[in-house]
Write a structure and sequence with these properties.
about 400 residues, 4-stranded mixed β-sheet, globular, UDP-n-acetylglucosamine1-carboxyvinyl-transferase, Chain
């Protein structure tokens, strides 16, 4: 099953908690990151009911009230939970919240958000994890924010801004990355302002990128059900489909994604949809001529340094890779079998190289690539490798494998 969007699910959980009604989220994602968010909201005193079979989460909104005054909040390596909850708890005028996360989270950006919240009266014991945050409510007014390292820093403030005592005016001190995620936040704030009692989560466009890449890798067809590719879709990562289509690598007809005969390397600025750059990089060895991926410097501060990690793993596979601060240039060479891919506890490494591993490299249908720690996919897509196995079995029985999301 193609999962619901993590980005939408975790935003919806915060926005539902901020509202004044009880909201049921449908097609919600159940993964490590969303479970971290649910656990934190419960720790903060919110009533949250989950039904993993029905893919629903029901949460009672408290209109900006944070029920529990002091709590310990574990965010793991979930960037959305870390940034969104930090701003969220600042609505309480007298709160004391102890934040911590995985070792990787201690290297991820949070200081600029804490500095911005400091101008609202919050006091943080440190500008990185772990920290204790003493809150003073949000009086409103002008807030300066440097969101150049992560758009989530800006999204965090945008979601709580309507609950400030006076209008909160967020002004950026520099450009933010991944504007589509900021636009997603703004649109969802407006949607939840209408006080819905039911809210449908879109299927995950980033997860769907792997199956578009799968059509290229296998030179076959994949049916992708439930993905919103319409112009009004919330998720900017549908741009990956548009990129592969525009470059002639795939054709999309309704639900069906089909490989196209064109195999030229790709030049693409992936800044706005950078979660999918690993999918593109992983299929680059199969293309004719170099692939140049730019606009990805900020991904060095995500779950791991994704630029350096991708360069390292592709090099192990025999590829010639030129790495700069903001780009990767990949020159195809014959793939080297028998390599173990290091995932760096990063789900996107496991999934992108999992797709590359579906190439019948030796022509005998046998595995040739090993993925270390495939369980890291539980962060956003727990069933990923099970679904790949289902597709493999289906492809042995019929010409066109089917990937169903509902």
């Amino acid at each position: 099953m193609l999962p619901g969007s993590k980005s939408i699910t975790n935003r919806a959980l915060i926005l539902a908690a901020l509202g004044r009604t009880t909201v049921t989220l449908r097609n919600a994602l159940f993964s490590r990151d969303t479970r971290i968010m649910v656990a934190a909201l419960r720790e903060l005193g919110f009533a949250v009911e989950t039904d993993e079979t029905a893919l629903t989460i029901t949460i009672e909104g408290r209109g900006g009230e944070i029920p529990v005054r002091e709590a310990k909040i574990e965010v793991g390596n979930a960037g959305t939970a870390a940034r969104f909850l930090t701003a969220f708890v600042c609505l309480r005028p007298d709160g004391i919240y102890h934040f911590d996360g995985d070792e990787a989270m201690r290297r991820r950006p949070i200081g600029a958000l804490l500095a911005a919240l400091g101008s609202q009266g919050a006091e943080a014991s440190s500008l990185s994890f772990p920290f204790t945050l003493r809150t003073a409510g949000l009086p409103g007014g002008l807030v300066m924010l440097d969101a150049s390292e992560s758009s989530q820093l800006l999204s965090a403030l945008l979601m709580v801004a309507p609950l400030a005592r006076t209008p909160l005016d967020v002004q950026l001190t520099g450009e933010t990355v991944r504007r589509p995620f900021v636009q997603m936040t703004q649109r969802m704030v407006a949607q939840f302002a209408a006080a819905p009692t039911d809210y449908a989560i879109e299927s995950d466009a980033t997860a769907a990128s792997y199956f578009a890449a799968l059509a290229v890798v296998t030179e076959g067809e994949v049916e992708v059900h439930g993905l919103n590719l319409a112009p009004d879709a919330l998720q900017g990562d549908i741009a990956f489909y548009r990129l592969l289509t525009a470059r002639g690598l795939i054709r999309c007809t309704g639900r069906t994604v089909t490989h196209a005969p064109v195999r030229h390397g790709v030049i693409a600025n992936c800044n706005d949809f950078s979660d999918t750059f690993l999918s593109l990089a992983a299929i680059a060895p199969l293309l004719e001529g170099p692939t140049l991926i730019t606009g990805i410097a900020h991904t060095r501060k995500q779950e791991t340094d994704r630029v350096a990690g991708m360069a390292r793993e592709l090099t192990k596979l025999g590829q010639h890779v030129v790495e700069t601060e903001d780009a990767l240039e990949i020159h195809p060479r014959p793939l080297v079998p028998g390599v173990e891919i290091e995932t760096y506890h990063d789900h996107r490494f496991a999934m992108s190289f999992g797709i590359l591993g579906c190439r019948d490299l030796r022509g005998d249908g046998q595995p040739w690539l090993t993925i270390k720690d495939p369980a890291c996919c539980t962060k956003t897509f727990p069933a990923f490798f099970d679904l790949l196995e289902d597709l493999r079995r289906d492809s042995c029985e019929q010409a066109t494998p089917s990937f169903l999301s509902s």
